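Record YlxR domain-containing protein, 94 aa.
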Amino acid sequence: MARKIPMRKCILTNEMHPKADLIRVVVNKEGEVAADATGKLNGRGSYVVKDLDKVNDARAKKVLEKVIGKSTETLDPVYDEIIRLIYREDIPKR
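=>
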């Protein structure tokens, strides 16, 4: 029997993708926002597609700030971490 593939909705595109194709963004109890490479950090998780163009468009439009509710502070370090994780995935494993 085929295994069910877990699907999650990307907060940037509002499209459903397999969970493995997304990066988790977490807001913890203290209100800190971080990109979660492991998928196991404590806090409220949202998912972002691994697509540089969509992440850069989201940065320009401040989509994460609107969705997460951090309109007063910039989330540039979180965008940078998401981009770093995307590039890390593109490296072929030996």
